[in-house]
Amino acid sequence: MNFAESYRSDVKVKNFVDPLQITLLEGRDCARTLRRGYALTLKAAIDTMWPATPVLWLAAGTALGFRRERDFISEDTDIDVHIALDYRNKKLCDDFATRVERYLCESSFKLIRTAAYFGRFTQKAFYDTVNDNLVYDIMIFYNNSPPYDSPTKYCNYTKVGLQTMDADMIDNVIFDYFSFGVYPMPPDSYFPYRYGPTWRQRINSKKNFARAVPEPTS
């Protein structure tokens, strides 16, 4: 994965809770939120796409922790899950976005933020109200989408920019039975691509914050 473009001012973002106020405490059960959130996301994907097989994977810090430390990174501030969709099928894309929000919100998650670009949702982020408000972040990658309009290039637009992934990474999502992680491509190829050659080393550390989560205001 790489950022092909930087900050995008034309991405439509709606915040229901100030993301800077979503903070974490020690002792949270990341596995519990991952199990609940991933199962509901998978259900929404299956209900939307059946009989096709949806492609979901753990990403970013969540995937890195599972692969490198066989656990969640203790300082990580959210759970990252990505899904691949075909941009050309607007009904499928809209149905998934609607279902995943409904399923999660019916199960004690609350919506934090949405992002959209070119008429498709690219992010839906939630927090788990029954597990210390742990953040559960879904990023949606599209093939056949602007700016490449290619079946072999998947794109995701958010405020931070355009992320891209080649289709061979997504087409070869694997389940790692040793670390119980679902990754794109063989892990030893994906992680250097995502984090660089030093991905096995702990370099940066996120801060632990005190809890201060307001109710959504809109």
Describe this structure in words.
This protein has 218 residues and is of the alpha+beta class. The chain has one domain: 2-Layer Sandwich (Beta Polymerase, domain 2). The protein is 28% helix and 31% strand. The chain has five helices and eleven strands; from the N terminus they run ββαβαβαβββββαββα. Strands 2-5-6-7-4-3 form a six-stranded mixed sheet. Strands 1-9-8 form a three-stranded antiparallel sheet. α1 (30-49) packs antiparallel against α3 (90-105).
Structural class category = alpha+beta
Order of helices and strands: EEHEHEHEEEEEHEEH
Task: Please compute the radius of gyration using only Cα atoms.
Answer: 16 Å
Strand content: 25-35%
Share of helical residues: 25-40%
At the first level of CATH, the class is Alpha Beta
Mean pLDDT: 80
> How many runs of DSSP E, i.e. beta strands?
11
Low-confidence parts:
205-218
Please work out how many helical segments DSSP would assign.
5
Could you say how many structural domains there are in total? 1
**Which architecture name does CATH use?**
2-Layer Sandwich
Largest sheet: 6 strands, mixed
The fold-level CATH name is Beta Polymerase, domain 2
Major sheet: order of its strands?
2-5-6-7-4-3
CATH superfamily: Beta Polymerase, domain 2
Distance between the termini: 33 Å
- Dominant shape: globular
